[in-house]
Specification:
Layout lengths: L2 H10 L1 H12 L2 H17 L7 H22 L9 H32 L2 H12 L4 H8 L3 H25 L5
Length: 173
């Protein structure tokens, strides 16, 4: 995973991750230390991380292990000592992550349907047929720069549409 999207996800999910860490250590300063160490480790391991859901699952596992290790080193016991409670939290968060992913995919599908046929064709060539920009341009008999500008506009349009749908709920958009 590239560093920039990884950092964006870590920042966006900071509240959830720190709440999870705090539920184990019950100390704001230790929570911040564990979160910072987690971020450094995630950036160092970014080549091994596939996507958002993999990153979040990895972060929770590392946060849990690191929090318990820090407490043991300091001679303190984790407040949530029973690992079954942590396992339940992990299961719930994975379920929530999957639900959010499904909502986003559905919003994307509906937003793509709203694009013009020409823009849908550009997306199909670029992403479904996995053609590089130059081949898309050749297929459409357009300049490469024109195709890249169109893709940029399409990406922006899809992002705005998805954000609107997720903000309102898919049924309301």
């Amino acid at each position: 995973m590239e560093q920039e999207p990884l950092v964006r996800i870590l920042l966006k999910e900071r509240a959830k991750l720190t709440a999870y860490i705090w539920s184990i250590v019950r100390d704001v300063h230790v929570t911040d230390d564990v979160y910072q160490d987690l971020c450094v480790k995630a950036i160092a391991k970014r080549e091994q991380i596939r996507d958002r859901s993999h990153l979040l699952a990895w972060c929770r596992r590392v946060a849990r292990d690191e929090a318990v290790t820090v407490l043991r080193r300091s001679g303190r016991q984790p407040m949530v000592f029973d690992t079954t409670v942590l396992d339940l939290l992990e299961t719930e968060w994975q379920s929530e992550d999957a639900h959010q992913t499904n909502e986003t995919v559905e919003a994307l599908r509906l937003c793509i349907e709203q694009l013009t046929p020409n823009n849908q064709r550009i997306l199909r060539l670029r992403y479904m047929q996995n053609l590089p920009g130059a081949q898309v341009a050749a297929e459409l008999d357009r300049k490469l720069d024109t195709v890249y500008k169109a893709l940029t506009r399409i990406h922006k349009s899809l992002l705005e549409c998805i954000e609107r749908r997720r903000g309102k709920g898919v049924a309301d958009a």
